[in-house]
Amino acid sequence: MTSLFLNLDSRACPGLRSGVRGNDGKWGQRLDLRLFFVSCLICLMFLPTAMSLAQSDDEAPPIVTTPEPARITDLKLIPERPETGARLKAFIKMAGAVRAEVRWSLNGEEVELIDYDGLSDHVDFSKPIKAGDKIEVAITPFDMTQAAGPAVSKELVCLNAPPSLRLMKQEMVGHNYKAHVEAKDPENSPVALSIEGPPGMRIDQKGNIAWDIGTQTTGRFQVKILAKDREGAQAILSYSIQIGRSRR
User: Fold this and answer.
1) Cα angle vertex 74, ends 68, 78, to 5°?
2) How many structural domains does the chain have?
3) What is the pLDDT along the chain (248 residues), one digit of tens a residue?
4) Which of 7, 9, 36, 131 ranks highest by number of CB atoms within 10 Å?
5) Do both 79 and 55 map to the same domain?
6) 187 closest CA partner among 142, 229, 247
């Protein structure tokens, strides 16, 4: 390796040729020593900089992150105007929280305590409600250290629901039309029934419909039945009756 290096240097630098020949390889050894000393000098020049960088890394203060405080960012009760029989849902959005305690109260008494993990977007209220009931939900969020954030609450009052109407049957007996409708009120209050239809059609409060049809009566007739509870909530059922052949 040394002879190759010296031969290359002898060809590249004619001034070194006599020195290499006269010293029988000792000049190459001197070059190796010089390169060694130059390398050491370069290391000494950059050593303070490397030490200062290492020292600055050691002395850098640790980075401490403050956890985001747990809080409720949004709370909605759906439906916003519940009626008798409705199923309430509390839709919750949180920030900085890993869980929350959901407390449901019915008419001033706590009836449910749910540990909400935040995986779903809502919590169900499982108790049945009726007109006049006061429902309240209070939610307390907790962060990863189990520190509680400020509680958020909402309340609403259950409203009266209207009756329901359903046509159960209808038939022709001779020249008489007969039908029956079923009226139900969610609050089990009395329901008043009335009817709008062709002349002579009538309905009783049990939902029985009767209509005496003349022998010459034909055509399509519209029927509308109205059911109203004692609170004034109402339901309407409409349908049509075809007597004789339909005209096309």
Assistant:
1) 150
2) 3
3) 434 333 434 444 444 443 444 445 554 555 566 666 666 666 566 556 656 555 555 555 666 566 789 999 999 999 999 999 999 999 999 999 999 999 999 999 999 999 999 999 999 999 999 999 999 999 999 999 999 999 999 999 999 999 999 999 999 988 899 999 999 999 999 999 999 999 999 999 999 999 999 888 889 999 999 999 999 999 999 999 998 865 55
4) 131
5) no
6) 229
